């Protein structure tokens, strides 16, 4: 068995659940998250990857999950703008759509735009600093701070007051400015 196959097996066995939970925070749906992780694993390991340890492989797969998520969102937005030209509506309204949705963090995250959601997940789930988030998303530090601030405001509209989030953002901002 090749080294990359062992690394893939170890990664899926030991960190597969964590990767799916990470992707679920981005997608808001466990099934979509499983598909997203599967796509990322295929993309990362389909050519006999040179990854030699689980830690490096997990970081690479997480980055790929984020990239696939953002690219997929762009495609969906573009397709939504064109779909009405070529097809009938896929959904019909029914009584199940009027049932109240359960309010939780996943639903609140789903209300955010993808970049804001990615910043929140990377900051509060991956515990990355603002410069690390900026580097991963190819943004400036100020843009990341703004996204985090805007996301906190939008999440407050759905979840209620989030004093810890504002304190965390202010703490990060003042600590990194020193």
From TrEMBL:
GO biological process, one term: DNA-templated transcription initiation
GO molecular function terms noted in the UniProt entry: DNA binding; sigma factor activity
Keywords, sorted A to Z: DNA-binding, Sigma factor, Transcription, Transcription regulation
Keyword Transcription among UniProt keywords: yes
Domain RNA polymerase sigma-70 region: 11-77
InterPro entries, per the entry: RNA_pol_sigma-70-like, RNA_pol_sigma-70_dom, RNA_pol_sigma70_r2, RNA_pol_sigma70_r4_t2, RNA_pol_sigma_r2, RNA_pol_sigma_r3/r4-like, WH-like_DNA-bd_sf
Domain RNA polymerase sigma factor 70 region 4 type: 103-155
Family affiliation: Belongs to the sigma-70 factor family. ECF subfamily.
This protein's name: RNA polymerase subunit sigma-24
């Amino acid at each position: 068995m090749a080294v990359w196959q062992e690394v893939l097996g170890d990664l899926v066995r030991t960190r597969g659940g964590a990767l799916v939970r990470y992707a679920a925070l981005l997608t808001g749906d466990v099934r979509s998250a499983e598909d997203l992780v599967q796509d990322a694993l295929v993309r990362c390991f389909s050519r006999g990857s040179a990854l030699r340890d689980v830690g490096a492989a997990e970081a690479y797969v997480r980055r790929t999950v984020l990239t696939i998520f953002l690219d997929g969102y762009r495609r969906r937005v573009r397709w939504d703008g064109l779909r009405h030209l070529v097809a009938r509506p896929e959904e019909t309204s029914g009584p199940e759509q009027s049932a109240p949705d359960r309010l939780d963090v996943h639903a609140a995250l789903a209300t955010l735009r993808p970049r804001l959601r990615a910043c929140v997940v990377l900051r509060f789930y991956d515990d990355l600093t603002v410069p690390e988030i900026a580097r991963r998303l190819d943004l400036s530090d100020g843009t990341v701070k703004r996204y985090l601030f805007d996301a906190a405001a939008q999440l407050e509209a759905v979840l209620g007051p989030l004093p810890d989030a504002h304190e965390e953002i202010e703490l990060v901002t003042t600590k990194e400015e020193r």
